[in-house]
UniProtKB/TrEMBL annotation, chains A, B:
It is found in: Cell membrane; Membrane. Keywords: CBS domain, Cell membrane, Magnesium, Membrane, Metal-binding, Transmembrane, Transmembrane helix, Transport. It holds the Pfam family MgtE. It comes from Ancylobacter koreensis. NCBIfam families: mgtE. This is Magnesium transporter MgtE. Its main location: membrane. Residues 220-276 form the CBS domain. It is a multi-pass membrane protein. Acts as a magnesium transporter. Homodimer. The chain crosses the membrane at residues 302-322, 376-400, 406-429, 441-463. Belongs to the SLC41A transporter family. CDD domains: CBS_pair_Mg_transporter.
Length: 464, 464
């Protein structure tokens, strides 16, 4: 297999599989160019890279090379790339770059990208950068930053095309064709009254298919899904997803158009939220990133493990209530983890489904009862099946028929408890406005451990 | 708080929070109308519903009412709603509807929606429906269905605008304005040669901002991200996400344009894939849906639990090797689950991060070594901290200093094993082309259970 790799110009063209960043030697070649301060080579490389790949290149470079590369590139570095970086890396770069470079770079950004970069900086730094920006840009950014974190107002783009209803389609088309400084990409024109209150929108393709003499007011359709700037981004993402939206207007409390949200921003939110839920269920902080430092990760994982240690000690305390039985019959000690572990896994299954369905708003008051009943039945059914299996295994292993009966009964009790805990705990936490993805796990396994040990050892102590 | 609820016309307007389906009494009112065969009322309701809400209404109705409603509505029922249904519900409806109704409904669909509905039907049913469709539509659907499941060819829309490079922008605009039967929504025109080989595309907004006399060939830009029809939908979704694409052309092996993929289809894929990973990590089948029957769920959960039961029995076997020690010192039985459980949770943390990073392609050969080293360090660090905590707790509880030392040592060993298992098992499975999200769990917990019990009881047997 012969493969020639041109280290400077990464492979281009329709094969999107060809990934410049993963090409052996590519990152090293860039690092070398930075070291030699070889601006010409750097510019050639960067000209060929998509902003996302530029971000991935920055992440792959040694930390000191990152700001160095940006400074060497000057105006050829597209600051949009910063929005694609892991937060840790972005903050490191912004800290080390001279403020003037940051301000220059920010000026070329769309408002949503600028806000995304600014919002994680500390207040002093944020204000210093804003102060260096021209007044109109500063005002627009400040307005977005005044909305709460993770709100639609933070994610929206404040560049959009808004026209009055008495304009004709022809006027609109000419305006779009001739005006400089319109947004880079747009999917519709919005129709607003003189105070910028939103009438609705006309998608670009409809604009093109309507006769030039028709007034916008006649072809405008009211947007069914108008986003309030204060809406939480997760709720907005659900609406985009549910109704397959490409973009949606954002209005302030007065119903005035203040921005537009597009699906590409929302995709990031959907991805982020799914990511957070998945990590939370695994006991990892939602913002943990692959580029985080050892120390940050160790600390963030620690708190979850500490919670689990407390849960495990509670379970251990339950076991210690039966020391006499364990001493009389060591087989109980050998078998008890099976009951607890089977319950833990069944509980996790139910909890996973419940947490996910709550996150996607599929689990709602109207169907909660049916889902609880079904989970209970599944727990009972699987409990009985595993009871029979374990009864046979235990009898075969220890030759004590009664022990098989005891473990079977404990298994049924624990799998029913697991089903109930797995669904009721997330539902309860959700009702209490606590994120069930983050908090359900330790409660559910505490329930299944405690019930598992208590049922098995308790029944054994009564029986033998 | 007075609230008047009009059961027939659900609340509309900018408040997207108002959810007709969850309005108390709404579903019952619809069911009543179906029972009375009150077509007029049904039509009024449906006219106001988005296809997604129509699907949610169908899911909320009792099963027999679903096909009944569709038949009553006739041509007023938008078959697009079927694409928004849970698979189980969709198949139930398609089975019970007369074939003629299905064929009529399918004719109005975009190709990607039609394929989505057809692909889950059994072959005989699929062919019967295709046979009843007009030849051009049948051929287009058949071509999509010939691509592998979960490929770009299955998800693409075969309706698009493709023009030759010698056309002017003005000609293109006039063509769009005057031609009937163009796609409902489109974001660009594609430029192709006479054999439909793709030159590139011109986004609508650029078309509008270019002088009418300019030739398309002069403003076309080659698409950097061209999708092959045989590409896996998950890989395509990563590309859309990574490069913030709104749409991408789909080509066949010969580089000929055969369709277009848009972000709204891809959002569903992203959501599906995140969903599958999350469920897989929780031990639930990726296709489990909230509307699935008790029996289906019980069976699908069973196999995972059976795997776990085997793992638990292996761990139990390890414990039985130390029956003498357990008999001599019941405290060992009381404490051993703590070591195992702490390891299981630490292993799950690492595994969650690894599985997610593999799914999003963030974890790659170029950074794997660094991540493994970091996880190992985190395991060692947290192991030492928890060793100290447990040593103190155990000494306080049992008054045996040696026992504290033994549990501490076992804790360190198990947390290091957890870190290694949590990262190396997903990496290995990925290398073997097995989905790490589905298969890592049982392996990782087997490792932490076995190492936990063996280390703790083994060290104890040497020590005491």
């Amino acid at each position: 297999m012969r493969e020639e790799t041109d280290l400077v110009a990464p492979p281009r063209g329709p094969e999107h599989d060809a990934d410049p960043i993963e090409t052996p030697g590519f990152v090293e070649a860039v690092a070398g160019a930075i070291e030699r301060r070889d601006v010409a080579t750097l510019k050639t490389i960067v000209a060929d890279l998509h902003e996302t790949d530029l971000a991935r290149l920055l992440e792959a470079l040694p930390a000191p090379d990152r700001p160095a590369m940006i400074e060497l590139l000057g105006a050829d570095f597209d600051f949009t790339a910063l929005t694609e970086l892991d937060e840790t890396v972005r903050l490191q770069i912004l800290e080390e770059l001279p403020r003037q470079t940051v301000v220059e770079g920010m000026r070329d950004l769309e408002s949503d990208d600028a806000v995304y970069i600014l919002e994680d900086l500390d207040d002093a730094e944020k204000q210093a950068i804003l102060a260096d920006l021209p007044i109109p840009e500063r005002a627009a950014l400040q307005r977005s930053l005044d909305y709460p974190e993770e709100s639609a107002g933070r994610r929206m783009q404040t560049e959009f095309i808004a026209l009055p209803p008495f304009w004709t389609v022809g006027q609109a088309l000419d305006y779009i064709g001739e005006t400089e400084g319109l947004p880079d990409v747009f999917f519709e024109v919005f129709v607003v009254d003189p105070s910028y209150r939103l009438d609705g929108s006309v998608p670009l393709d409809r604009l093109l298919r309507t006769k030039r003499g028709v007034k916008l007011g006649e072809v405008v359709t009211p947007d069914r899904h108008v986003v309030k700037a204060t809406d939480d981004q997760e709720n907005v993402a659900r609406v985009f997803e549910r109704y397959n939206l490409i973009s949606a207007p954002v209005v302030d409390e007065g119903g005035r158009l203040v921005g537009v949200l597009t699906i590409d921003d929302i995709v990031d939110v959907i991805q982020e939220e799914a990511d957070e839920d998945l990590k939370a269920l695994g006991g990892v902080a939602g913002d943990e990133e692959l580029s985080d430092s050892f120390w940050y990760i160790a600390k963030s994982r620690f708190s979850w493990l500490l919670l689990n240690l407390i849960a495990a000690n509670i379970a251990s305390f339950v076991i210690s209530l039966f020391e006499d039985e364990l001493h009389r019959m060591v087989a109980l000690a050998v078998l008890m983890p099976i009951v607890a572990s089977q319950g833990g896994n069944a509980g996790t299954q139910t909890m996973t489904v419940a947490v996910r369905a709550l996150a996607t708003r599929e689990l709602r008051p109207s169907n909660a009862r049916r889902v609880v009943a079904r989970e209970l039945l599944v727990g009972l059914f699987n409990g009985v099946v595993f009871a029979v299996i374990m009864a046979v295994v235990v009898f075969a292993r220890f030759g004590i028929a009664d022990l098989g009966f005891v473990i079977g009964l404990a298994m049924i009790i624990n799998l029913v408890a697991a089903a109930l805990g797995g669904i009721l705990i997330p539902l309860l936490l959700d009702r209490l406005k606590v994120d069930p993805a983050v908090s359900s796990g330790p409660f559910v396994t505490t329930v299944t451990d405690v019930v598992g040990f208590f049922a098995f050892l308790g029944i054994a102590s009564l029986w033998f």
